[in-house]
DNA sequence: AAGCCAGACAACCGCTTCGAT
DNA sequence: GATCGAAGCGGTTGTCTGGCT
């Protein structure tokens, strides 16, 4: 049995909208609101299916839509968010006021993707293509990079999905706390009492906060603190090891002075890759403390690293390259990154100081975007 | 001038998710 | 918890337009 059509399609018009149709739709919605999209066409006197009307309104007729050329800032935002979120156009659109997901998607496909490709950057992974087909050179590291990026992305999405579920639980407290509220997760005003909105932003935001912690730690340069790597057993230690090798200090997650709190995921036995959720604060000895923010997805990535990721320093180094590589994806015609101007320079480990400073700025930029984003963003 | 082609963007299709019952 | 309809979403297609031969 086939899928039932969304509406009766016999006699309905398809294809481009005429100005008359636009006017009818616009006039109806301005007067009555859209209500049920399925019922709208008949009421508005349109020979269109409700879905088509909805799309036309959302992508074209809505008064709060900005049309026309994308600004440099918008281009940068799209590229950066795409590096972070992938093809999640609606999520990206929430950070670009007055732009629709469809418009952003089209702009990406017709402009930005090609521009990145032309620059030698893979628009999917946001990594420079060191050769025509990535691994075509036979260098297994190229293929491994792609594989690791895919693993990261997969784990990130999984973690995000879980966080969304968790945040829903948080934003939907027991009924007695939201007396009179609708079923929506958005707190509603009641007649007699103002139901306080959650004081904190959705937990998903912490993903980026923690990323910032990671990246800031990774990209903090301290030439006076050269150390030899001491372990290659896991992601955290490897990242530290790489940081040390390349002249970075240890204010990454491990050995940080951040106090452990109940609920934090911590590593209790580095040799056994054992992690646990703290029931009480500060119950883990300082030296073994590898704090991960429990409210975000990163710990899940680290969890997953038990079996697959970052088990050797080479993989950790790949992660560093990923950060570097994303940075180079500045807005096409406005290329700024020194690493792009001199491909491979950063990858060869020569000029990390400036490159990592740029990377830090890059992630800070994304965080600023997030901080400036509407609190009801579906992603953050 | 006509035909071809590629780029750009609007619109559609089908799957997923959400919310009400 | 199951079901169903509505809405959301992202990939894909269709159409228009301008440039080139």
UniProtKB/TrEMBL annotation:
Give an example GO biological process.
cell morphogenesis
**InterPro entries under this entry?**
Homeodomain-like_sf (IPR009057), Myb_dom (IPR017930), Myb_TF_plants (IPR015495), SANT/Myb (IPR001005)
Positions of region (Disordered): 122-142
| Protein keywords | Developmental protein, DNA-binding, Nucleus, Repeat, Transcription, Transcription regulation
Task: Spell out the molecular function terms from Gene Ontology.
Answer: DNA binding
**Principal place of residence:** nucleus
Q: Out of the domains of life, which is the source?
A: Eukaryota
PANTHER family linked to this entry: MYB FAMILY TRANSCRIPTION FACTOR, MYB TRANSCRIPTION FACTOR MIXTA-LIKE PROTEIN
Protein name, please?
A: Transcription factor MYB106-like
Recorded name of the encoding gene:
LOC111317604
